[in-house]
Amino acid sequence: MITHSLWEATPSRAVAFKWKATGQREMFKTNQSPVRADRIDDNRFLLWTHCEKEDDETYAEIAPGGIPSLVLLQITNGIEGVSLEEKWSNSIRAAKVWPIVSRNFLLVDYKDTTDALLSLEDGTVIHRLSLPCWYYSQLYPLEAQWKDMARRTTWKDPRRVSSKGSRTKAMPNVLIYGKDASFTVFDYADYVRRPYQKTQLALEQQLASFIDVENMPADKRRMLFEVFI
Predict the structure, then answer these.
(1) In the chain, helix, strand, coil percent, each to 5?
(2) pLDDT in tens, the chain (229 residues)
(3) Which of 61, 74, 139, 199 is the most buried (most CB within 10 A)?
(4) Which top-rank group of organisms is this from (predicted)?
């Protein structure tokens, strides 16, 4: 049985920590596999068991459909005050977890070295391919961007295939890998028209810190400019 407590921290008060709520939940755990708590956002956090290799036999006896190893809790405010509400639970044995809050997903690294994407809304499994760049950047492609992807396709990880010495720039909706006059742009969101248009000179000055814009051919400079307007 796991006991979890919620505290409010206000450093400016005389008593910095104030208790808000407490709950209990039966979860799978051993001496080698403790239960951890990870914050998802301001109102949600995840209790999950870090499963070790030594626990495989023990876990096989209770999963699937047994004691959960993942539990998502949500903070709610009611008439009686603050409480911790369980939204969903799952028996997936996890070595690591990565919240992808921008798409409301949870990426779980299975003990058998495969990955699973779960919905943070209800815990259901989403059968999609996954790559390290998705959870390192906290982003994930839109549904429409999967349409033309062939089944069983393996995508290369740009962090590993980029040339030595290349630089990376992460923005809210894109990742850019560049070196000298060579660059790659990964766009993760639908085009949204901005309320104002930046000039090509302003964009080139902004990108100059990680891409050698000055020595780019004119057609590539124009292409890069069109990506950001």
Answers:
(1) 20, 35, 45
(2) 778 888 888 888 777 787 888 888 887 777 667 788 888 888 888 988 887 655 555 555 545 457 888 899 988 887 777 888 889 988 877 888 888 888 888 888 765 556 777 889 988 887 555 555 565 555 666 555 666 666 666 655 555 555 556 677 766 667 777 777 677 777 655 544 444 445 556 555 555 555 665 677 777 666 665 655 4
(3) 139
(4) Eukaryota
- Could you tell me the sign of the dihedral formed by the alpha carbons of 143, 148, 151, 157, in that order? negative
Cis peptide before 64 (omega within 30 of 0): yes
**CB neighbour list of residue 202: distance below 8 Å, 6 or more residues apart:** none
- Among 100, 203, 211, 214, CA closest to 162: 211
Entry pTM: 0.52
CA atoms within 13 A on the CB side of 190: 4
